[in-house]
Amino acid sequence: MGLFFACMGVGLAVEPWIGPSAAGAPQVWVADRDASLLRGLDDDLIDGRSHVVGWPLAVATAADGGLWVARSGNATNAFGARLLELSERGTEQGELWLEGFHDLDALADGRALCLERLQDGSGRLWRVDAQATPRLLMQAAGLRHVRASGLLAWCGGEDGRLLQVDVAAGGVLALACMPAPILGLRVTADGGAWVALGGSSPVLARLDARLARMAQAPLESLVAFDVLPDGGGPWTLERAGAILRARTRDGRPRLEVDLTILPEARHVLALPDGGALVASPGGIVRFDAHGSPQPGQGGFAWISGWCRASPPDD
Fold first, then answer.
1. Element (H, E) at 253
2. Which pTM does this prediction carry?
3. Is 153 helix (H, G, I), strand (E, B) or coil?
């Protein structure tokens, strides 16, 4: 029953806007695709700062407080894409045109890593500097995911390849062939990563900085996952978005939350306090580190991506 009342804010009838004077500094940036807005939510999920951006698909926070935004021409990632650089005040600094879009992350020095989707199915990895100035780092078939870690880009493919790419000079520094398609990856504060693998027996694996496997645990129909900023275990959204699990550092579930009250849950974001945010297209619910629901927020048109507002620190 507590979860029901916490989710009341998810209904589309709830008005999400409260004026800037009532809101604190943004802690999370949300790409509200169909509203053509980036929404900056404070600790109470109050929308206190918004930027108008046409059809945003993904957002990443730069070290200088600015934002990198991947956007589309028609609410999908199949009608071309653009990478937009915004200053802290929301002023456009530059834009890079792309054939399509796969993934986006920000480096600690403020630059972006953008994975472009090409019509032949391959992925093209760009390092994007100030004023959206691009440098091509690599192109390979099947690339789908990228995450920044120091001067490295971790890249994962649907063919199971996991690569470490030199962000400064380009070139592959390390390669691991995983036994199944890579569904997603998140880097950790110690230079390693969590990697979600699909196939007939999906697993979540923790790797060290040299790509050696340290732990793994089975998954149920993974939708999304994220890792805690302090290096703790991940939060996973599983079973078609109906189950939220908090996991230990070796990947084992430590608690489970039934999400059937939140239809179509498809995004999870781990928070510095150990909790997590879970989003459906129209709304967000917050859970504390013990899995207890907290007040949520609704009224979004279609949540397509989000990121923590704090810049990368690795």
1. strand 253-258
2. 0.90
3. strand
Q: Are 262 and 278 in contact (CB under 8 A)?
A: yes
pLDDT in tens, the chain (314 residues): 344 334 433 332 333 333 444 678 999 999 999 999 999 999 999 998 899 999 999 999 988 889 999 999 776 555 689 999 999 888 999 999 999 999 999 998 999 999 999 999 899 999 999 999 999 999 999 999 999 998 899 999 999 999 999 999 889 999 999 999 999 999 998 899 999 999 999 999 999 999 999 999 999 999 999 999 887 899 999 998 999 999 999 999 999 999 987 889 999 999 999 999 999 999 999 999 999 999 999 999 999 999 999 765 54
From the list 293, 219, 292, the residue with the least C-alpha distance to 252 is 219
In this structure, are residues 291 and 275 in contact, taking their beta carbons and an 8 Å threshold?
no
DSSP state of 17: B
Under 8 Å between Cβ of 265 and 296: no
Measured CA to CA, the distance from residue 87 to residue 102 in angstroms comes to 23
Residue 313 tokens, joined: 């620190």
Contact in structure between 57 and 79 (CB atoms under 8 Å): no
Q: Are 123 and 113 a contacting pair, CB within 8 Å? A: no
Contact of 70 with 86, CB cutoff 8 Å: no
Q: What are the two backbone dihedrals, phi and then psi, of residue 277, each rounded to the nearest 5 degrees?
A: -105, 140
- Distance between CA atoms of residues 87 and 65, nearest Å: 7
